[in-house]
Protein backbone atom coordinates (compact mmCIF):
# COMPACT_ATOMS: atom_id res chain seq x y z
CA UNK A 1 0.00 0.00 0.00
CA UNK A 2 2.77 2.45 0.91
CA UNK A 3 4.77 1.78 -2.24
CA UNK A 4 1.80 2.10 -4.57
CA UNK A 5 0.61 5.29 -2.86
CA UNK A 6 4.07 6.88 -3.00
CA UNK A 7 4.49 5.91 -6.65
CA UNK A 8 1.20 7.51 -7.68
CA UNK A 9 1.74 10.66 -5.63
CA UNK A 10 5.33 11.21 -6.82
CA UNK A 11 4.55 10.48 -10.47
CA UNK A 12 1.80 13.08 -10.39
CA UNK A 13 4.39 15.65 -9.35
CA UNK A 14 6.19 14.93 -12.62
CA UNK A 15 8.82 12.51 -11.31
CA UNK A 16 9.75 9.32 -13.11
CA UNK A 17 9.06 6.40 -10.76
CA UNK A 18 10.17 2.79 -11.01
CA UNK A 19 8.25 0.23 -8.91
CA UNK A 20 10.32 -2.87 -8.22
CA UNK A 21 8.35 -5.83 -6.86
CA UNK A 22 9.88 -9.26 -6.31
CA UNK A 23 6.40 -10.84 -6.27
CA UNK A 24 5.67 -11.35 -9.96
CA UNK A 25 2.10 -12.60 -9.59
CA UNK A 26 0.10 -10.64 -12.18
CA UNK A 27 -2.82 -8.43 -11.24
CA UNK A 28 -6.08 -10.33 -11.90
CA UNK A 29 -8.09 -9.23 -14.92
CA UNK A 30 -11.12 -8.17 -12.86
CA UNK A 31 -11.99 -7.41 -9.27
CA UNK A 32 -14.22 -10.47 -8.90
CA UNK A 33 -11.12 -12.71 -9.07
CA UNK A 34 -8.88 -10.41 -7.03
CA UNK A 35 -9.68 -12.31 -3.82
CA UNK A 36 -7.72 -15.24 -5.26
CA UNK A 37 -4.70 -13.08 -6.12
CA UNK A 38 -1.50 -14.75 -4.98
CA UNK A 39 0.46 -12.08 -3.08
CA UNK A 40 3.27 -14.12 -1.56
CA UNK A 41 5.01 -11.10 -0.12
CA UNK A 42 1.92 -9.84 1.73
CA UNK A 43 1.09 -12.36 4.49
CA UNK A 44 -1.85 -10.25 5.70
CA UNK A 45 -3.39 -10.09 2.22
CA UNK A 46 -6.34 -12.39 3.04
CA UNK A 47 -6.72 -11.31 6.64
CA UNK A 48 -9.67 -9.05 7.53
CA UNK A 49 -9.07 -5.32 7.29
CA UNK A 50 -10.98 -2.34 8.66
CA UNK A 51 -10.46 0.67 6.42
CA UNK A 52 -10.83 3.64 8.69
CA UNK A 53 -12.09 7.18 8.23
CA UNK A 54 -8.46 8.33 8.39
CA UNK A 55 -7.69 6.31 5.26
CA UNK A 56 -10.63 7.82 3.37
CA UNK A 57 -9.57 11.29 4.53
CA UNK A 58 -5.96 10.76 3.40
CA UNK A 59 -7.03 9.43 -0.01
CA UNK A 60 -9.50 12.27 -0.47
CA UNK A 61 -6.71 14.74 0.19
CA UNK A 62 -3.95 13.10 -1.85
CA UNK A 63 -5.46 10.64 -4.34
CA UNK A 64 -9.21 11.32 -4.61
CA UNK A 65 -9.57 9.35 -7.84
CA UNK A 66 -8.72 6.18 -5.89
CA UNK A 67 -11.88 6.69 -3.86
CA UNK A 68 -13.80 7.47 -7.04
CA UNK A 69 -12.65 4.19 -8.58
CA UNK A 70 -13.58 2.21 -5.46
CA UNK A 71 -17.06 3.72 -5.47
CA UNK A 72 -17.42 2.97 -9.18
CA UNK A 73 -16.85 -0.75 -8.63
CA UNK A 74 -19.39 -0.86 -5.81
CA UNK A 75 -17.31 -0.61 -2.63
CA UNK A 76 -19.78 0.53 0.07
CA UNK A 77 -19.06 3.90 1.66
CA UNK A 78 -19.96 4.08 5.35
CA UNK A 79 -21.26 7.33 6.83
CA UNK A 80 -20.10 7.87 10.41
CA UNK A 81 -20.58 10.65 12.96
CA UNK A 82 -19.44 14.23 12.38
CA UNK A 83 -19.38 13.85 8.60
CA UNK A 84 -16.69 11.15 8.70
CA UNK A 85 -16.72 8.50 6.01
CA UNK A 86 -15.09 5.08 5.83
CA UNK A 87 -15.60 2.04 3.60
CA UNK A 88 -16.23 -1.70 3.65
CA UNK A 89 -13.62 -3.28 1.46
CA UNK A 90 -11.39 -6.30 1.14
CA UNK A 91 -7.64 -5.74 1.10
CA UNK A 92 -7.53 -7.52 -2.27
CA UNK A 93 -10.02 -5.04 -3.76
CA UNK A 94 -8.14 -1.97 -2.58
CA UNK A 95 -4.78 -3.29 -3.76
CA UNK A 96 -6.27 -4.33 -7.09
CA UNK A 97 -7.48 -0.76 -7.64
CA UNK A 98 -4.20 0.84 -6.54
CA UNK A 99 -2.09 -1.51 -8.67
CA UNK A 100 -4.26 -0.90 -11.73
CA UNK A 101 -3.99 2.85 -11.33
CA UNK A 102 -0.21 2.64 -10.88
CA UNK A 103 0.14 0.47 -13.99
CA UNK A 104 -1.83 3.04 -15.99
CA UNK A 105 -0.12 6.12 -14.54
CA UNK A 106 2.22 8.01 -16.91
CA UNK A 107 5.64 8.20 -15.33
CA UNK A 108 5.33 4.90 -13.42
CA UNK A 109 7.12 1.78 -14.65
CA UNK A 110 6.53 -1.55 -12.90
CA UNK A 111 9.21 -4.23 -12.95
CA UNK A 112 9.57 -7.58 -11.23
CA UNK A 113 12.93 -8.11 -9.56
CA UNK A 114 14.70 -8.29 -6.20
CA UNK A 115 16.72 -5.35 -4.93
CA UNK A 116 20.07 -6.62 -3.69
CA UNK A 117 21.53 -3.38 -2.33
CA UNK A 118 21.39 0.39 -2.27
CA UNK A 119 24.09 2.34 -4.12
CA UNK A 120 25.57 5.21 -2.12
CA UNK A 121 27.99 7.94 -3.08
CA UNK A 122 29.07 10.78 -0.81
CA UNK A 123 26.39 10.10 1.80
CA UNK A 124 23.48 10.06 -0.68
CA UNK A 125 21.76 7.32 -2.62
CA UNK A 126 22.45 7.04 -6.34
CA UNK A 127 20.19 4.07 -7.04
CA UNK A 128 19.76 0.36 -6.35
CA UNK A 129 21.39 -2.82 -7.58
CA UNK A 130 19.09 -5.67 -8.61
CA UNK A 131 19.85 -9.30 -7.85
CA UNK A 132 21.07 -9.88 -11.40
CA UNK A 133 23.48 -6.95 -11.22
CA UNK A 134 21.39 -4.38 -13.09
CA UNK A 135 21.73 -0.86 -11.68
CA UNK A 136 18.71 1.42 -11.49
CA UNK A 137 19.78 5.05 -10.90
CA UNK A 138 17.64 7.11 -8.53
CA UNK A 139 17.71 10.26 -6.40
CA UNK A 140 15.13 8.82 -3.98
CA UNK A 141 14.82 5.17 -2.90
CA UNK A 142 11.59 4.38 -1.09
CA UNK A 143 11.72 1.18 0.96
CA UNK A 144 8.19 -0.25 1.13
CA UNK A 145 9.30 -3.86 1.69
CA UNK A 146 7.14 -4.40 4.77
CA UNK A 147 8.15 -5.39 8.26
CA UNK A 148 11.43 -6.95 7.10
CA UNK A 149 12.58 -3.60 5.71
CA UNK A 150 15.06 -5.43 3.50
CA UNK A 151 16.34 -2.44 1.55
CA UNK A 152 16.91 -0.18 4.58
CA UNK A 153 17.91 -2.92 7.01
CA UNK A 154 21.64 -2.01 7.23
CA UNK A 155 20.67 1.41 8.61
CA UNK A 156 17.57 0.61 10.66
CA UNK A 157 17.79 0.45 14.46
CA UNK A 158 15.22 -1.17 16.74
CA UNK A 159 13.82 1.52 19.03
CA UNK A 160 11.04 -0.59 20.59
CA UNK A 161 10.10 -4.23 20.08
CA UNK A 162 7.28 -5.77 22.13
CA UNK A 163 4.91 -8.69 21.56
CA UNK A 164 1.34 -7.74 20.72
CA UNK A 165 0.23 -10.77 22.78
CA UNK A 166 -2.70 -11.63 20.54
CA UNK A 167 -3.54 -14.41 18.08
CA UNK A 168 -6.29 -14.23 15.47
CA UNK A 169 -8.48 -16.98 14.08
CA UNK A 170 -10.72 -15.75 11.26
CA UNK A 171 -13.05 -17.15 8.65
CA UNK A 172 -14.57 -15.50 5.61
CA UNK A 173 -18.26 -15.75 4.64
CA UNK A 174 -20.52 -14.56 1.85
CA UNK A 175 -24.13 -13.51 2.28
CA UNK A 176 -26.70 -15.61 0.45
CA UNK A 177 -28.78 -14.08 -2.36
CA UNK A 178 -31.24 -11.60 -0.93
CA UNK A 179 -29.62 -11.59 2.52
CA UNK A 180 -28.11 -8.52 4.18
CA UNK A 181 -25.29 -7.92 6.61
CA UNK A 182 -25.90 -8.22 10.34
CA UNK A 183 -25.70 -5.35 12.85
CA UNK A 184 -22.66 -3.07 12.90
CA UNK A 185 -21.94 -1.43 16.26
CA UNK A 186 -18.49 0.14 15.90
CA UNK A 187 -18.67 2.22 12.75
CA UNK A 188 -17.09 -0.09 10.20
CA UNK A 189 -16.98 -3.31 12.25
CA UNK A 190 -19.00 -5.12 14.89
CA UNK A 191 -17.44 -6.09 18.21
CA UNK A 192 -18.46 -8.39 21.05
CA UNK A 193 -16.12 -7.94 24.02
CA UNK A 194 -15.49 -11.09 26.03
CA UNK A 195 -13.81 -11.12 29.43
CA UNK A 196 -10.64 -12.75 28.05
CA UNK A 197 -11.16 -12.73 24.29
CA UNK A 198 -12.90 -10.66 21.63
CA UNK A 199 -14.98 -11.33 18.57
CA UNK A 200 -14.94 -8.96 15.61
CA UNK A 201 -16.95 -8.97 12.39
CA UNK A 202 -15.50 -7.14 9.39
CA UNK A 203 -17.95 -6.28 6.58
CA UNK A 204 -16.31 -6.09 3.16
CA UNK A 205 -17.43 -5.42 -0.39
CA UNK A 206 -19.39 -7.80 -2.67
CA UNK A 207 -21.45 -9.21 0.22
CA UNK A 208 -18.38 -10.73 1.87
CA UNK A 209 -17.53 -10.46 5.56
CA UNK A 210 -15.05 -12.00 8.01
CA UNK A 211 -15.59 -13.24 11.56
CA UNK A 212 -12.49 -13.07 13.75
CA UNK A 213 -11.78 -14.33 17.28
CA UNK A 214 -8.80 -12.82 19.11
CA UNK A 215 -7.15 -14.50 22.10
CA UNK A 216 -3.92 -14.71 24.07
CA UNK A 217 -1.09 -16.73 22.49
CA UNK A 218 -0.79 -18.72 25.73
CA UNK A 219 -4.46 -19.70 25.99
CA UNK A 220 -4.63 -23.42 25.11
CA UNK A 221 -8.34 -23.53 25.85
CA UNK A 222 -9.10 -21.29 22.86
CA UNK A 223 -6.37 -22.61 20.58
CA UNK A 224 -8.95 -25.06 19.23
CA UNK A 225 -10.55 -22.13 17.39
CA UNK A 226 -8.12 -22.87 14.56
CA UNK A 227 -10.35 -25.87 13.74
CA UNK A 228 -13.51 -25.18 11.72
CA UNK A 229 -15.96 -27.19 13.92
CA UNK A 230 -14.78 -25.37 17.06
CA UNK A 231 -14.80 -22.02 15.28
CA UNK A 232 -18.39 -22.53 14.09
CA UNK A 233 -19.49 -23.71 17.54
CA UNK A 234 -17.95 -20.62 19.16
CA UNK A 235 -19.53 -18.35 16.56
CA UNK A 236 -22.94 -19.81 17.33
CA UNK A 237 -22.29 -19.24 21.04
CA UNK A 238 -21.72 -15.47 20.64
CA UNK A 239 -25.03 -13.86 19.74
CA UNK A 240 -23.45 -11.26 17.46
CA UNK A 241 -21.63 -13.85 15.34
CA UNK A 242 -24.60 -16.24 15.42
CA UNK A 243 -26.74 -13.64 13.69
CA UNK A 244 -24.16 -12.87 11.04
CA UNK A 245 -23.33 -16.50 10.25
CA UNK A 246 -26.83 -17.99 10.42
CA UNK A 247 -27.13 -20.63 7.67
CA UNK A 248 -30.08 -18.74 6.20
CA UNK A 249 -27.99 -15.58 5.92
CA UNK A 250 -24.46 -16.62 4.93
CA UNK A 251 -22.11 -19.45 4.02
CA UNK A 252 -18.37 -19.87 4.71
CA UNK A 253 -16.17 -19.45 1.64
CA UNK A 254 -12.76 -20.12 3.19
CA UNK A 255 -11.06 -22.19 5.85
CA UNK A 256 -10.12 -20.79 9.24
CA UNK A 257 -6.94 -18.71 8.98
CA UNK A 258 -4.67 -18.11 11.98
CA UNK A 259 -2.30 -15.18 12.41
CA UNK A 260 0.14 -14.96 15.30
CA UNK A 261 3.67 -13.88 16.16
CA UNK A 262 2.59 -10.25 15.99
CA UNK A 263 4.79 -7.54 17.42
CA UNK A 264 4.70 -3.81 18.07
CA UNK A 265 7.98 -2.75 16.51
CA UNK A 266 9.36 0.74 15.93
CA UNK A 267 12.58 1.42 14.03
CA UNK A 268 14.59 4.55 13.36
CA UNK A 269 17.19 5.28 10.73
CA UNK A 270 20.78 5.47 11.99
CA UNK A 271 22.38 8.91 11.45
CA UNK A 272 24.73 7.27 8.94
CA UNK A 273 21.83 6.35 6.63
CA UNK A 274 22.31 7.90 3.20
CA UNK A 275 20.14 10.85 2.27
CA UNK A 276 17.49 9.91 -0.27
CA UNK A 277 16.72 6.58 1.41
CA UNK A 278 13.24 6.64 2.96
CA UNK A 279 11.69 3.54 4.56
CA UNK A 280 7.91 3.70 4.86
CA UNK A 281 5.09 2.08 6.80
CA UNK A 282 5.81 -1.42 8.18
CA UNK A 283 9.52 -1.03 7.47
CA UNK A 284 9.46 1.64 10.21
CA UNK A 285 6.48 0.77 12.40
CA UNK A 286 4.24 -2.25 12.92
CA UNK A 287 1.38 -2.35 15.41
CA UNK A 288 -1.23 -4.89 16.39
CA UNK A 289 -3.65 -5.22 13.45
CA UNK A 290 -6.51 -5.45 15.97
CA UNK A 291 -6.89 -1.67 15.57
CA UNK A 292 -6.87 -1.64 11.76
CA UNK A 293 -4.34 1.18 11.56
CA UNK A 294 -1.75 -0.31 9.23
CA UNK A 295 -3.17 0.82 5.90
CA UNK A 296 -4.13 4.29 7.18
CA UNK A 297 -0.63 4.85 8.54
CA UNK A 298 0.98 3.45 5.38
CA UNK A 299 -0.95 5.80 3.10
CA UNK A 300 -0.45 8.76 5.46
CA UNK A 301 3.30 8.05 5.63
CA UNK A 302 3.62 7.84 1.84
CA UNK A 303 1.70 11.06 1.30
CA UNK A 304 3.79 12.90 3.92
CA UNK A 305 6.92 11.90 2.02
CA UNK A 306 5.35 13.06 -1.26
CA UNK A 307 4.47 16.38 0.41
CA UNK A 308 8.07 16.80 1.52
CA UNK A 309 9.37 16.13 -2.00
CA UNK A 310 6.87 18.57 -3.46
CA UNK A 311 7.97 21.27 -1.01
CA UNK A 312 11.69 20.82 -1.79
CA UNK A 313 12.12 18.75 -4.97
CA UNK A 314 15.93 18.78 -4.93
CA UNK A 315 16.62 18.65 -1.18
CA UNK A 316 16.86 15.09 0.26
CA UNK A 317 17.90 16.56 3.59
CA UNK A 318 14.52 18.28 3.80
CA UNK A 319 12.77 15.02 2.86
CA UNK A 320 14.52 13.25 5.72
CA UNK A 321 13.75 16.03 8.22
CA UNK A 322 10.05 16.10 7.33
CA UNK A 323 9.78 12.31 7.54
CA UNK A 324 11.61 12.22 10.87
CA UNK A 325 9.32 14.88 12.33
CA UNK A 326 6.18 12.96 11.37
CA UNK A 327 7.55 9.61 12.51
CA UNK A 328 8.73 10.94 15.89
CA UNK A 329 5.50 12.88 16.38
CA UNK A 330 2.21 11.48 15.14
CA UNK A 331 3.44 8.01 14.18
CA UNK A 332 5.12 7.51 17.56
CA UNK A 333 1.97 8.64 19.36
CA UNK A 334 -0.17 6.04 17.57
CA UNK A 335 2.48 3.39 18.13
CA UNK A 336 2.59 4.04 21.87
CA UNK A 337 -1.20 4.09 21.99
CA UNK A 338 -1.39 0.62 20.42
CA UNK A 339 1.19 -1.03 22.64
CA UNK A 340 -0.29 0.55 25.77
CA UNK A 341 -3.68 -0.94 24.86
CA UNK A 342 -2.05 -4.30 24.16
CA UNK A 343 -0.36 -4.38 27.57
CA UNK A 344 -3.58 -3.55 29.37
CA UNK A 345 -5.58 -6.10 27.39
CA UNK A 346 -3.06 -8.90 27.86
CA UNK A 347 -2.82 -8.26 31.61
CA UNK A 348 -6.59 -8.30 32.03
CA UNK A 349 -7.09 -11.38 29.86
CA UNK A 350 -4.40 -13.32 31.72
CA UNK A 351 -5.98 -12.44 35.04
CA UNK A 352 -9.33 -13.79 33.86
CA UNK A 353 -7.78 -16.88 32.31
CA UNK A 354 -6.00 -17.64 35.60
CA UNK A 355 -9.06 -17.01 37.76
CA UNK A 356 -8.01 -13.65 39.18
CA UNK A 357 -10.00 -10.39 39.16
CA UNK A 358 -9.58 -8.68 35.78
CA UNK A 359 -8.03 -5.50 37.21
CA UNK A 360 -5.55 -7.08 39.62
CA UNK A 361 -2.64 -6.50 39.55
CA UNK A 362 -2.89 -2.87 38.35
CA UNK A 363 -2.45 -2.06 34.70
CA UNK A 364 1.21 -2.16 33.64
CA UNK A 365 2.95 1.21 33.69
CA UNK A 366 4.08 2.55 30.31
CA UNK A 367 7.72 2.15 29.33
CA UNK A 368 10.08 3.57 26.72
CA UNK A 369 8.41 6.95 26.60
CA UNK A 370 4.81 5.74 26.26
CA UNK A 371 2.29 7.90 28.06
CA UNK A 372 -0.92 6.50 29.46
CA UNK A 373 -2.84 9.74 29.58
CA UNK A 374 -4.57 8.06 32.53
CA UNK A 375 -7.05 9.54 34.97
CA UNK A 376 -6.94 8.45 38.61
CA UNK A 377 -10.33 7.96 40.17
CA UNK A 378 -10.88 6.51 43.64
CA UNK A 379 -7.16 5.67 43.75
CA UNK A 380 -7.25 3.54 40.61
CA UNK A 381 -5.85 4.30 37.15
CA UNK A 382 -8.25 3.57 34.33
CA UNK A 383 -6.70 0.92 32.08
CA UNK A 384 -6.46 1.96 28.46
CA UNK A 385 -8.39 -1.06 27.25
CA UNK A 386 -11.30 -0.27 29.56
CA UNK A 387 -11.79 3.06 27.83
CA UNK A 388 -12.05 1.32 24.47
CA UNK A 389 -14.38 -1.39 25.79
CA UNK A 390 -16.69 1.14 27.45
CA UNK A 391 -17.65 2.48 24.02
CA UNK A 392 -20.48 -0.05 23.94
CA UNK A 393 -22.16 1.08 27.16
CA UNK A 394 -21.77 4.87 27.24
CA UNK A 395 -22.69 7.22 24.41
CA UNK A 396 -20.13 9.91 25.27
CA UNK A 397 -17.32 7.39 25.58
CA UNK A 398 -18.52 5.69 22.40
CA UNK A 399 -18.27 8.92 20.42
CA UNK A 400 -14.75 9.66 21.67
CA UNK A 401 -13.61 6.11 21.06
CA UNK A 402 -15.04 6.01 17.54
CA UNK A 403 -13.12 9.17 16.60
CA UNK A 404 -10.04 7.71 18.27
CA UNK A 405 -10.31 4.33 16.57
CA UNK A 406 -10.76 6.02 13.20
CA UNK A 407 -7.61 8.08 13.90
CA UNK A 408 -9.23 11.47 13.36
CA UNK A 409 -8.49 12.64 16.92
CA UNK A 410 -5.04 12.23 18.48
CA UNK A 411 -4.54 9.51 21.13
CA UNK A 412 -4.36 12.10 23.91
CA UNK A 413 -8.00 13.08 23.24
CA UNK A 414 -9.23 9.97 25.07
CA UNK A 415 -8.18 11.53 28.38
CA UNK A 416 -11.41 13.55 28.34
CA UNK A 417 -13.59 10.45 28.88
CA UNK A 418 -11.44 8.54 31.38
CA UNK A 419 -13.38 9.97 34.36
CA UNK A 420 -16.61 8.55 32.91
CA UNK A 421 -15.02 5.12 32.54
CA UNK A 422 -13.67 5.34 36.08
CA UNK A 423 -17.24 5.93 37.26
CA UNK A 424 -18.48 2.90 35.32
CA UNK A 425 -15.78 0.73 36.93
CA UNK A 426 -16.69 2.05 40.37
CA UNK A 427 -20.29 1.00 39.71
CA UNK A 428 -19.14 -2.54 38.94
CA UNK A 429 -19.09 -2.57 35.14
CA UNK A 430 -16.58 -4.78 33.29
CA UNK A 431 -16.33 -5.73 29.59
CA UNK A 432 -18.92 -8.32 28.65
CA UNK A 433 -21.27 -7.21 31.44
CA UNK A 434 -24.09 -4.64 31.56
CA UNK A 435 -23.71 -1.55 33.69
CA UNK A 436 -25.34 -2.30 37.07
CA UNK A 437 -28.58 -0.35 37.47
CA UNK A 438 -28.60 0.81 33.85
CA UNK A 439 -31.80 -0.41 32.21
CA UNK A 440 -30.89 0.57 28.65
CA UNK A 441 -27.13 0.02 28.28
CA UNK A 442 -25.50 2.68 26.16
CA UNK A 443 -26.31 3.14 22.49
CA UNK A 444 -29.31 1.37 20.92
CA UNK A 445 -26.94 -0.92 19.03
CA UNK A 446 -24.69 -1.58 22.02
CA UNK A 447 -22.14 -4.37 22.11
CA UNK A 448 -23.79 -7.80 22.40
CA UNK A 449 -22.75 -10.00 25.31
CA UNK A 450 -20.23 -12.78 24.85
CA UNK A 451 -20.10 -15.87 27.10
CA UNK A 452 -17.45 -15.87 29.84
CA UNK A 453 -14.09 -17.30 28.86
CA UNK A 454 -14.37 -20.24 31.24
CA UNK A 455 -17.77 -21.25 29.83
CA UNK A 456 -16.57 -21.00 26.23
CA UNK A 457 -13.43 -23.02 26.97
CA UNK A 458 -15.47 -25.74 28.70
CA UNK A 459 -17.91 -25.98 25.82
CA UNK A 460 -15.18 -26.14 23.19
CA UNK A 461 -13.33 -28.71 25.28
CA UNK A 462 -16.45 -30.90 25.37
CA UNK A 463 -16.79 -30.54 21.60
CA UNK A 464 -13.16 -31.57 21.09
CA UNK A 465 -13.51 -34.51 23.44
CA UNK A 466 -16.60 -35.80 21.63
CA UNK A 467 -14.92 -36.11 18.25
Automatic annotation (TrEMBL):
InterPro entries in alphabetical order: FAD/NAD-bd_sf, Flavin_halogenase
Domain of life the protein comes from: Bacteria
Biased composition (Pro residues): 441-451
GO MF terms, alphabetically ordered: monooxygenase activity
Region Disordered, residue ranges: 353-378, 432-467
Signal peptide positions on this chain: none
Protein name: 2-polyprenyl-6-methoxyphenol hydroxylase-like FAD-dependent oxidoreductase
Organism of origin: Modestobacter marinus
Organism lineage string: Bacteria, Bacillati, Actinomycetota, Actinomycetes, Geodermatophilales
Amino acid sequence: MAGLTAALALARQGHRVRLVDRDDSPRPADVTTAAGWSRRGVPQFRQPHAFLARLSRELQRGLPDVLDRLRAIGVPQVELIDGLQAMWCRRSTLEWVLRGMAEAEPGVTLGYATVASVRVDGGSVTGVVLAGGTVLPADLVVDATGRRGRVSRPWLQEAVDEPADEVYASRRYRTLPGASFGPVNRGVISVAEGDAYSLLVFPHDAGVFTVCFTRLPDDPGLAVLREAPAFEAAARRVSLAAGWTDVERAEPIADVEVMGGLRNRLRVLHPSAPLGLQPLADAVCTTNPHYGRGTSLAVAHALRLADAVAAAPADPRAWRAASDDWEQGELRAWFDDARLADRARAAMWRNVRDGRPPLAPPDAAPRDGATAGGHAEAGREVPHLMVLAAAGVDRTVGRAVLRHMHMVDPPAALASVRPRVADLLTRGWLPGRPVPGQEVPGPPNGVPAAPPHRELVDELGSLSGSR
